Each structure stands twice: as structure tokens, then as C-alpha cells.
Amino acid sequence: MSNVLVTGGAGYIGSHACKALKAAGFTPVTFDNLITGWQDAVKFGPFEQGDLLDRARLDEVFAKYKPIAVMHFAALSQVGESMSEPGKYWRNNVSGSLNLIEAAVAAGCENFVFSSTCATYGDQDNVVLDENSAQYPVNAYGASKRAIEDILRDFEASNDLRHVIFRYFNVAGADPDGDVGEFHQPETHLVPLMLDAIDGKRDALTIFGTDYDTPDGTCIRDYVHVCDLVDAHVLGLKWLQDGKGSRVFNLGTGSGFSVREVIDHSREVTNKAVPFNEGARRPGDCTKLVSGSQRAIDELGWKPERSTLKQMITDAWRWHQTGHYDA
Ligand code: UFG
After folding, report:
1. Phi-psi domain of 244 (left: phi exceeds 0; alpha: psi -120 through 50; beta: other)
2. Domain ranges in the chain?
3. Which of 102, 177, 187, 320 is the most exposed place for a label (fewest CB within 10 A)?
4. Ligand 1 atom nearest to 142, measured from its CA
């Protein structure tokens, strides 16, 4: 069996990736410090607790499993927090990733799949963002991810590591089998917050800003189903195994939905009212982020089959009602 080191494998996207890797015949080895992840979410392969800032621990894990590739999900990822605590983002995300990259190179592991973000593009109103769009992040989270992309390009140039970089748009939904799902503490993401508000687990949702230059005044995002997203990662891994060159791919659907539209869809799916109020803008938020993801479809053969807003909210709602991890 081929081992793949999955950093952040106990988190939302990483745990879904582990399931997809196992289904594709790989052994996902989760490396996670459990600061934002859940040991309960590690169901598809071995678990190694550790922190990316601990190089000796990384070396130990590389030596033990001799992974054929790294899938790097572990990161701090809250846009708002990154604005108030930028140092935390640069240290954890950038220094941690550099440690991981150097450990991979030292262990002779040459294939690296990296979880990047559309937040690296920043606010480019009324543009569909493709992989060649300029990157002007407007928050420290996006800036930290762009810096890691730069590091990967430098290690590619020195012939040490080949990479596939995925720039995600807004990830939502959950495993339809209910094995894993989305659970953050604290929760900051729109869909799970809204589902909590719907069934009274928390107060009304606050819409962050209603004065944006969009048709209904609320921010527009491109939502992609977590299962489709991780399928692309398995294709990215195979791309590298096939000896193809380093490449960047956007992962989104090309369709944008405003916060109010997400609320409307949630009302339809759950058949329940969505309690909400209107609040101020959240620092660091872009007006509109919509993906051009044709490259992943054309070159990787990616088929995002579950990424309708209705399907994502349906799967998230099922998980919300039945799944949980022990906090
Ligand atoms: N929103 C609200 N109220 C809330 C939470 C969110 O109105 O209580 C709005 C946000 O302002 C934004 C949209 O809902 O317009 C989506 O917000 P999320 O927090 O769910 O997602 P973000 O767009 O901020 O961030 C996500 C990922 C990042 C990624 C980013 C790119 O968490 O990793 O998408 O947009 F970089």
C-alpha cells in the first residue's frame, strides 16, 4: 500500500481527503496537532499527533511511513482572525509549511499536493478568477497561503519537489455516508452557522455587510462540495504519480451565490425559517470570489458532481442532524 502523509487529516477537508484516498487504494497517514482537528475524524488510516513547527517529529513520521506524497491541509484558516492576529498565521502556516517541505525533501518524498485558497486572489470585483489571475490577498490568511505557493515554486525550481496547488473557493457539504463532516470550534463558516441558527443551537445568523456592490448587497462566494474537492486531490496525486509537471488548479464551480441566496436555499432544503439579522462588514472579506475552474475539468478530468448549492446544504444538514465528534 502507498502511504500518503495527510497533514490536517483530522480536520474538515483533510478527513474527507483521507476517506477518498483510502477508497482510491492509498493509506492516508494523518499528521495533526488536534488544535482545530478531531481525533474522532481519523477513521481511514494511522494517526500521528504532531505539530508542523516540530521538525524532529516530522522527520520521525517521514522515516516511519516513507510516504510517496504529502497532502498538506493543516493550516489556520479564519479570515477574520488572520486580520487581528497576523503573526499567528505567518508562524503556523508559513513557517510550519516550510518545515514540512524541508522534511519532505530530506526524506526524498518528491510529490506535494497543497491546499491553497481563492483568498490569495483578493478583491477583484466582477472578475471570474482563473489560475492566471493576479494574486493580491487582502487578509493575512490569503497572504500566508500565497507565500507558501511561492516557497513551493522555489523548491520546484531547485528540482527538489513537484507540486499540485489547489486554490479552493468556499468549501461546504459533508460526506453523504455520514462518516465525517464539518465541525469547527469556534465555528465561523456561513453554512454550519446557519444550520445551527435554524435549529436553535445558536443565536440568529448575522449577515456580515449588506452594502456591498452586489445585486442584493451581500457578499458573493462560489461554493464547492467537499467530496468533489477531495476527489480533485486524488486526481492531483495521480497527476504527480504520472510524472506530470507542477500545476495550479482552481476548485470551484463558476457560479456565485450571495449570502442571502444561501439563506434562501437553506430555508428550502430544511423547510425551516432561518433566523438572521443584518450586521457590519467583517474585516478582510472580499466582495465577490467566483472561480474559473475549467482547467481542473479539462486537464485533471475533474467532475464536480455534488456541487449544487442544494446538494451541499442537504448533505451538510444531514451531518448537522446526525453526525458529531466528541469535543
Ligand atoms: N458570513 C456571514 N455571516 C457569518 C459568517 C459568514 O454573513 O456569520 C458571510 C461572510 O461575510 C462571507 C460568506 O458568508 O461573505 C462566507 O463566509 P465564510 O466564513 O463561510 O467563508 P469565507 O469566504 O470567509 O472563507 C472561506 C474559507 C477560507 C477561504 C475563503 C475564501 O474559510 O479558507 O473562504 O473566500 F479562503
Report:
1. beta
2. 2-172+223-251, 190-221+254-322
3. 177
4. 36
CATH class given for the domain over 190-221+254-322: alpha beta
The answer to whether the predicted template modeling score (pTM) of the entire model surpasses 0.90 is yes
The CA distance from 88 to 35, in Å, is 13
- Taking each helix axis from N to C end, the angle separating 259-270 and 309-322, rounded to the nearest 10 degrees, works out to 60
The pLDDT assigned to 80 comes to 86
| Contact of 316 with 191, CB cutoff 8 Å | yes
Tell me which residue has its CA closest to atom 18 in ligand 1.
189
Over residues 1-41, the pLDDT tens digits come to: 699 999 999 999 999 999 999 999 999 999 999 999 999 99
Is 15 within 8 Å of 226 (Cβ atoms)?
A: no
The superfamily CATH assigns to domain 2-172+223-251 is NAD(P)-binding Rossmann-like Domain (3.40.50.720)
User: Is ligand 1 within 6 A of the CB of residue 288?
Assistant: no
Q: How confident is the model at residue 283 (pLDDT cuts 50, 70, 90)?
A: confident
- If you take atom 14 of ligand 1, which residue's CA is the nearest one? 190
Active site residue 141: yes
Atom of ligand 1 nearest to the CA of 220: 15
Q: Is the pLDDT of residue 125 over 80?
A: no
Q: Which of 12, 89, 121, 141 is catalytic?
A: 141
User: At residue 310, what is the residue type?
Assistant: K
| Cβ pair 300, 249 in contact under 8 A | yes
Q: Name the more confident of 247 and 324.
A: 247
Give the residue whose CA is nearest to atom 19 of ligand 1. 189
Distance 189 CA to ligand 1 centre (A): 6
Indicate whether residue 221 lines ligand 1 (CB < 6 A): yes
| Residue 119 near ligand 1, beta carbon < 6 Å | yes
